[in-house]
Amino acid sequence: MPGPGSRSRYAPDRGLTTRMVTTMFLIGLVYVVFVGVLLVALQNAWPVILVVAGGLFIAQFWFSDRIAAYSMGAREVTPEQAPELHGAVDRICALADMPKPRVAIADSDVPNAFATGRNERTALVCATTGLLRRLEPEELEGVLAHELSHVAHRDVAVMTIASFLGVLAGTMTRVWLYTGIGRSSRDSNTAIAMLLVPLVSAVVYVISFLLTRLLSRYRELSADRAAALLTGRPSALASALTKVTGQMARIPTQDLRKAEPFNAFWFAPAFSSKESLSRLLSSHPTLEQRLDQLARISTQLGRA
């Protein structure tokens, strides 16, 4: 995995690189253990397990960006259809010395943005109509610089793969439970497997969830920092953060619930209520943490 900043002017973040490598190693290790348990439990059905596990993983790796973009309603637009958005992306890419990604708009009043893609060649950056309507040009550029840093640092691809492994564990368990693969024998091992596999699957999902949440919080702070240093305008990003977070309370609950499952990808999390459990296990640091960091960067830039 190339180090962050190796192909762009975004400030490198060794802490992010270390966390990405560690997260992938630990989740991969847990996943290998889970597949091992399945192979032991299913006995003669091991070829099916390996094919299903390998096929789903490859499909997720190659199509995850398209699945995410489609699920969040992203519609690719041309420079003629969205000149202001394309212009902002052009300026950030020129500043960062990185290839321009595909540009999309999602028809949603929830003010937000996201980026997806396995690498810079397949990257897509998307802004919602609600975001475009509410932000000033400098604020929009700050948000886009934040999102493009995820592409430059490769953490968007790592998050997608890491999140999928926990989901895959659950999917494979459901396939086993509902199809009865490998349960033809009626010995005591079958009864043990019936209890062991769902339990291990749940453990795998919980570990994957917690690891990706820890990585996600750090990568959001890293993206804020990289965007602020690249643009030299941390105050614009802070203004965008404050405005977007403040507007969330005015969005209909139904719209927020549609956006909430994709919080790990959004610029700012969408919560359907202030007491939501998602806030306790949030994919993002708090607004206060993000604003404090941007204030420190602003002070550092002022001294420089």
From TrEMBL:
InterPro entries with a match to the protein in the record: HtpX_protease, MFS_trans_sf, Pept_M48_protease_HtpX, Peptidase_M48
MF-aspect GO terms: metallopeptidase activity
Active site positions, chain numbering: 147
Record-listed Zn(2+) binding positions: 146, 150, 220
Record's cofactor remark: Binds 1 zinc ion per subunit.
Alphabetic keyword roster: Cell membrane, Hydrolase, Membrane, Metal-binding, Metalloprotease, Protease, Transmembrane, Transmembrane helix, Zinc
Keyword Transmembrane appears in the UniProt entry: yes
SUPFAM superfamilies according to UniProt: MFS general substrate transporter
Keyword Zinc-finger: no
Residues of the Peptidase M48 domain: 80-296
Residue stretches spanning the membrane: 21-39, 45-63, 156-179, 191-211
Enzyme Commission number, as recorded: 3.4.24.-
Compartments where found: Cell membrane
Membrane topology (UniProt): Multi-pass membrane protein
Cofactor section: Zn(2+)
Record-stated family: Belongs to the peptidase M48B family.
Protein name as it appears in the record: Protease HtpX homolog
Organism: Streptomyces formicae
Upper classification of the organism: Bacteria, Bacillati, Actinomycetota, Actinomycetes, Kitasatosporales
This protein's encoding gene: htpX
